[in-house]
């Protein structure tokens, strides 16, 4: 059974930093591209960032480019999102997600974590 467990959320002041982690189990982590998706209060899901299976290619939504960094450790089956220069607009529940298709860089997400709340406020 695929399991994705996020951690690292919380309250942070504007301009601050936060690091999210996702512990993956139940599948061969190194075979799949992974991503982060967020949902702000009262809004729909927004794709934030994605990384290919080997970790060499990363992608970001324009609003977080230069501030967020996605990374993965295939030896430890973990996905991370380093968030710097946080803004109130970054307030959301952040979900770790796994692509459906093995080896693909793009495609639908087939598995999701339970989410972790990030609140950016003074």
Radius of gyration: 13 Å
Quick one: overall form? globular
User: Sheet bearing the most strands, described?
Assistant: 7 strands, mixed
> What's the rounded overall pLDDT mean?
97
Listing every helix as H and every strand as E from the N terminus to the C terminus, the arrangement reads EEEEEEEEEEE
* Tally of strands: 11
What is the helix tally? 0
Q: What portion of residues belong to β-strands?
A: over 45%
The CA-CA distance between the termini, in Å, is 40 Å
Query: Helical proportion?
Result: under 10%
Lay out the secondary structure.
Elements: E1 3-7, E2 10-12, E3 18-25, E4 34-39, E5 45-51, E6 58-60, E7 68-73, E8 78-83, E9 92-99, E10 109-112, E11 116-120
Parallel strand pairs: 2-11
Antiparallel strand pairs: 1-3, 3-8, 4-5, 4-9, 5-6, 7-8, 9-10, 9-11
Describe this protein with a few key phrases.
122 residues; mainly beta; 7-stranded mixed β-sheet; 4-stranded antiparallel β-sheet; 11 strands; globular
Explained architecture:
The chain is an all-beta fold and 122 residues long. 0% of the residues lie in helices and 50% in strands. Strands 2, 4, 5, 6, 9, 10 and 11 form a 7-stranded mixed beta sheet that branches. A 4-stranded antiparallel beta sheet has the order 1-3-8-7, with no helix packed on it. It starts with a strand and ends with a strand.
Structure at a glance:
By secondary structure, the chain is mainly β. It has strands at 3-7, 10-12, 18-25, 34-39, 45-51, 58-60, 68-73, 78-83, 92-99, 109-112, 116-120.
């Amino acid at each position: 059974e695929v399991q994705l467990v996020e951690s690292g959320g919380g309250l942070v002041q504007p301009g601050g930093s936060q690091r999210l982690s996702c512990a993956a189990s139940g599948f061969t982590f190194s075979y799949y591209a992974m991503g982060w998706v967020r949902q702000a209060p009262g809004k729909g899901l927004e794709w934030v960032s994605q990384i290919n299976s080997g970790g060499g290619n990363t992608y970001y939504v324009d609003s977080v480019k230069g501030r967020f960094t996605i990374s993965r450790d295939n030896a430890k089956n973990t996905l991370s999102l380093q968030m710097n220069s946080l803004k109130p607009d970054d307030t959301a529940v952040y979900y770790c997600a796994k692509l459906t298709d093995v080896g693909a860089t793009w495609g639908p997400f087939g598995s999701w974590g339970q989410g972790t709340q990030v609140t950016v406020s003074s």
